Amino acid sequence: MGRSADLPRSSGEIDGDDTGCHVLHVDMDAFFASVEIRARPELRGLPVVVGGTGGRGVVMAASYPARVYGVRSAMPMGQALRLCPQLIVVTPDRKAYVEASSAIMRIFTDITPLVEPLSLDEAFLDVSGAVGLFGRPADIARRIRRRVAEEHQLTCSVGIAPVKSVAKLASGSCKPDGLRVVSRAGLLDFLHPLPVTALWGVGQRTAEELRRLGIRTVGELAATSPDTLRRTVGAASADHLHALANGHDERAVNPDTVEKSISTDRTLDTDLLTEEEVCRELLRGSGEVAERLRHSGWVARTVGIKIRFADFTTVTRVRTLAEPTDAATVIYAETVKLYRSLALDRPRIRLVGVKAEKLRPAGEATQLALDLFSDQRPASTSAGTSASTSADRVIDALTARFGKQVVGPASLLGKQADGTAVGGFNRSMDRSGRRTPAGDNE
């Protein structure tokens, strides 16, 4: 994915001839931070970030007032606080973001069934079949922006173009709260002055290889022979990037695209030194991944771990399961096996991650009471997996009603979700906006 921060930006509406421009890319503005500010209007206009509060915390999202100081997503929290000492740090509330995302996606599907979500806060829409009802694509984009603002008190930016890759660049170029049409006739005029790093698929390593060829803009990439590019970045990347640089993108908006994986990782405030500490993190991550699988209606056939050491060396391992699962205990057992297979000797570990891959739709849910209290089991799953999933669903119901502090693994008691000890102090704010000792109930 290209880096949208490299795009020159011009907020507001840039309309044009949208004939044949049936692809919309809708991107919420500073989504996580905006959801938090919506819950606490007194934070509006202030530099706010969402992220971890420990010494190794990372910025997940930054409000636009925070970005004025140079604060950006994925920046170490310590660096962000040095750039903006008055920064207000809010701990993440994934449930709030998922709920807001679901509401926004319903607006999109009111317009067209052809919606392809990319993440919680962005999606492609094919509106070719909606123009008869709602008008030209630019009018549809305005309708979406108006409904998002009026119904959910959030803003979004919309790019409109003939192809997906250009629609995504267009939305990034008009942030925040903007709209931009890139016409068929003006497509190359829009694309070619952009930095090559803005293109979909140009990461840091590819950008360095292209710079060695003297390629810094999309136009220079488009003018370079495919043979030269193949010798530098490989045949597949060369053909892909050369096509995008010339405005060619054959991919259709696909509403049936599923998540390829669900994962979580956490950088610890202090290095982990014992297997017991690592297993506690694997348990926490397994529970979160399993909960997200169940919420999304998926089961996973493959489970993996990511371990990053104090010297920043990173290793990953994966294991294919005998049967797909969404049970935390099953995922945890497999991650422990993967970790032990590394046979580490006195490691210093700074990050632990858990991943579920090869996702598929979960089978029909069995009645909760039947699963818990009878000997009847679905034929396709083992008794252990069924009982584990059933227990997980009870926990899901309890946490949905009473919050995550009510029930959880005993080995995680005494620590907050961010790893700080109960009764300690962190810089985060509780849901009422008070700065609070860790462990203070919301």
Task: Describe the protein in words.
The protein has 442 residues and is an alpha+beta fold. Among the domains are: 54 residues, Orthogonal Bundle (DNA polymerase, domain 1), CATH 1.10.150.20; 153 residues, 2-Layer Sandwich (Dna Ligase, domain 1). The protein is 38% helix and 21% strand. It is built from 16 helices and 15 strands. Strands 1-9-8-2-7-6 form a 6-stranded mixed sheet. A 4-stranded antiparallel sheet has the order 10-13-11-12. The chain has a 3-stranded mixed sheet with strand order 4-3-5. Strand 8, helix 7 and strand 9 form a beta-alpha-beta unit. Helix 4 runs antiparallel to helix 6, helix 11 packs across helix 12 and helix 13 packs across helix 14. It is globular. The two termini are 37 Å apart. The C terminus is likely disordered.
Could you give a short description of this structure?
The chain is α+β, with helices and mostly antiparallel strands and about 450 residues long. Helix content is about 40%, strand content about 20%. A 6-stranded mixed β-sheet has the order 1-9-8-2-7-6.
Give the biggest beta sheet.
Answer: 6 strands, mixed
Strand order within the widest beta sheet: 1-9-8-2-7-6
Task: Output the CATH topology of one domain.
Answer: Dna Ligase, domain 1
CATH homology superfamily of one domain? DNA polymerase, Y-family, little finger domain
* Helical content band: 25-40%
Percent of residues in β-strands: 15-25%
Q: Give the name of the CATH architecture of one domain.
A: 2-Layer Sandwich
Query: What gross morphology would you assign?
Result: globular
The class by helix and strand makeup works out as alpha+beta
Oligomer state equals single chain
CATH structural class of one domain: Alpha Beta
Number of helices: 16
Give the beta-strand count: 15
Low-confidence stretches: 364-385, 414-442
Distance between the termini: 37 Å
What radius of gyration results from the CA coordinates? 23 Å
